[in-house]
Design a protein that fits this description.
With 302 residues, the chain is an alpha+beta fold. The protein has 11 helices and 4 strands.
């Protein structure tokens, strides 16, 4: 029975002509209500925005450093390679083809024993010694995390005498990235908790100051969303403005980071700064709106 009523209601609603002028008036009133709520908050607005901007600034700076560290780790990962030494009499091309079929292998290059011996002789001035070096395959993987797996899959291939890679460097890189990712996770959680708490307390004050007005609107049959949306917009406004302010300090660390990348001859990602800016704007605005919604749910029974 209830389903039939709901279906009839939806059908009737579809055939009711929309008054776009009325919709615009309602939208305008909701926006003005949010503006008035911000005005009522007064000087507290400055405290809220300043505090949130400080939190988001710390998040933005740490996020920017994290992106640079990720770039360094990826570049070092590209340098990492597995050296595969082949047995005498083994066909290098056959082994090369087999290694190329392994998942996560990015590139396999051959350095013949003659090439290695010529290079060594030029460095050490050796002439009358028989070439003792084997043919060598240089194997690069697509990501440093998979280098151990690829290493273990190459070992049993027929014709492979020995192989090795900079194991300690790979482990240190994995530990570094794990620490960076874990730190960023906790920073996001802490930033979210602080931001939502600040917004929650602010919206609570607004609700208390408008308690009688809200009660009258409810008795008059005003839609719940008409009461909720201005408060959500207020929280989103605080988050957005704080994010915009937090963007400016990022330019202060951009030059030192560029110099650091140039010093180590590692190119900087051209989109790093844009990624951080967009992330700040989205996170600040979203956290502000979420804080408002939580406050409405807790302190306003609509």
């Amino acid at each position: 029975m209830e389903d039939n009523k709901l279906q009839i209601k939806k059908t009737v609603k579809k055939h009711i002509p929309k008054d776009w002028l009325c919709e615009l008036r309602i939208t305008y009133r909701i926006i003005m209500e949010a503006v008035n709520d911000i005005k009522r908050t007064g000087i507290i607005n400055l405290v809220i925005i300043t505090t949130m901007a400080a939190i988001l600034t710390l998040f933005g700076i740490l996020f920017r450093f994290t992106l640079s560290l990720s770039t360094f780790a990826n570049e070092l990962g590209n340098v990492l390679e597995i050296s595969v030494y082949l047995k005498s009499g083994t066909s290098p091309n056959i082994v090369k083809d087999r290694i190329s079929e392994i998942q996560h292998v990015k590139k396999v290059t051959l350095k013949t024993k003659d090439e290695s011996w010529d290079s060594l002789k030029s460095e050490l001035d050796l002439h009358d010694i028989e070439n003792p070096l084997p043919d060598t395959l240089r194997v690069k993987v697509d990501k440093p995390d998979y280098i151990t797996d690829v290493f273990n899959q190459i070992r049993p291939i027929q014709g492979v005498e020995d192989l090795g890679y900079a194991k300690e460097l790979a482990k240190k890189m994995q530990v570094l990235m794990h620490v960076v990712n874990t730190s960023m996770f906790f920073v996001i959680i802490i930033s979210a908790a602080l931001t939502i708490t600040i917004i929650n307390n602010t919206i609570q004050l607004v609700i208390q100051s408008r308690k009688d007005e809200i009660e009258i609107m409810r008795l008059m049959g005003v839609s719940n969303w008409y009461i909720k949306i201005p408060l959500v917009m207020q929280g989103a406004f605080y988050g957005f403005v704080s994010s915009v302010i937090a963007v400016f300090p990022l330019s202060w660390i951009q030059v030192p980071l560029q110099n650091m990348h140039k010093f180590f001859l590692i190119p900087m990602s051209p989109y790093s700064q844009n990624i951080v800016v967009i992330s700040l704007l989205i996170i600040g605005t979203t956290f502000g709106a979420i804080g408002s919604l939580l406050s409405i749910k807790k302190h306003l029974q609509v």
